[in-house]
Amino acid sequence: AQASTFSTFSGANTLADGFAVPLLANVGTGSDALKAAEAGAEGVGLLRTEFCFLDRAEEPTVDEQIAAYGAVFAAFPGKKVVVRTLDAGADKPLPFLTNADEPNPALGVRGYRTDLTSPGVLERQLQAIAAAEAAHTAEVWVMAPMISTAEEAADFASLCAAAGLKTPGVMVEVPSAALTAATVLREVSFASLGTNDLTQYAMAADRQLGPLAALNNPWQPAVLQLVKLTADGAALASSTTGLPKPVGVCGEAAADPALAVVLVGLGVTTLSMSARALAAVSAVLKTVTLDQTRHLAFTALAAPSATEARAAVRAGLPILDELG
Ligand code: PEP
Ligand code: MG
């Protein structure tokens, strides 16, 4: 039963009531993107551009960048591809951007913050993304990692506009951005929740430390509250600006089928995950209506612990037993 249920994912995911929840893929390279397209991804929700250049001592040239991003766009003609600008630092050091001697790398000059210490790299990257976009038909959205304030979001949007990129967004993975989502989203067109870092920072638990795994769990009700605040803030920004302000999730949480149901119930509109998780997430989402996702989200938020949140939601999703 498992194989046949999983193989039915066709690339246009909906809930049981027909409500569309596009399922996108997290990729790092053109070959990842081809595999994701074969697995039925409706687009790319997170292109981790630093993965193209992890072994590099120096900044890649604009032409090298155009080739790397173009390879991903080519795999998704006419489809959405969300490009994240270089997220260097902490678990993803890039020698040309980050300082290995920082005492607290997770709290250091990483992600968007490297624009403070290495000015110009971000502008050249945006220029390369725009050039790659011009050569392909993919619908390119661009987002910055580690945004903490509305001011940073506005600065990033200006840089995107200067490069001719029309759909700027931010990752919400720092609790301050979740708490101020209504003002952050006034400045940009969309947000994508990075639940890996959002959990790390909400729980003050290094995501790379095994002994802290119980804290580093996106089922923690505190993390779910931050997801809800972000979705609610985006809805407010949408009504004050009259523009859509979609909020996706591109952290590992989206790949857990039961948690994916909760995220949709909290107001998330797209889910992005590693390609191998797409079929199982789709199979479970197909069994619930939007109202049911909201009910299950409420159940999770009200639970006193991550363990109880997960158990209560899973009890409401009988399909999970069938899928094993
Ligand atoms: C995240 O933080 O959830 C995320 C998607 O980004 P990364 O795992 O690359 O930090
Ligand atoms: Mg992150």
- Structural class label: alpha/beta
Order of helices and strands: HEHEHEHHEHEHHEHHEHEHHHH
- Share of residues in helices: 40-55%
Low-pLDDT ranges: 1-8
Number of helices: 15
- Give the number of DSSP strands: 8
Q: Order of strands in the sheet with the most strands?
A: 1-2-3-4-5-6-7-8
Beta-strand residue fraction? 5-15%
Query: What integer is the average pLDDT?
Result: 95
Beginning-to-end CA distance, first to last residue? 10 Å
Shape: globular
Bound chemical compounds: phosphoenolpyruvate, magnesium ion
Rg, rounded, reads 19 Å
Largest sheet: 8 strands, parallel, barrel
GO biological process, one term: phosphoenolpyruvate-dependent sugar phosphotransferase system
Enzyme class: transferase
Domain PEP-utilising enzyme C-terminal: 14-288
EC number: 2.7.3.9
Write structural notes for this entry:
The structure is a single chain. This protein has 324 residues and is of the alpha/beta class. The protein has 15 helices and 8 strands. The longest helix has 21 residues, at 221-241. It is globular. The model is unreliable at 1-8 (pLDDT under 50). Residues 145, 173, 194, 196-197 line the site of magnesium ion (MG).
Walk me through the topology.
Blueprint: H1 2-6, E1 23-27, H2 30-38, E2 43-48, H3 62-75, E3 80-84, H4 114-117, H5 121-134, E4 139-144, H6 150-163, E5 168-172, H7 175-179, H8 181-187, E6 190-193, H9 195-203, H10 221-241, E7 247-249, H11 257-265, E8 270-273, H12 278-285, H13 290-302, H14 306-315, H15 319-323
Parallel strand pairs: 1-2, 1-8, 2-3, 3-4, 4-5, 5-6, 6-7, 7-8
The structure holds phosphoenolpyruvate (PEP) and magnesium ion (MG).
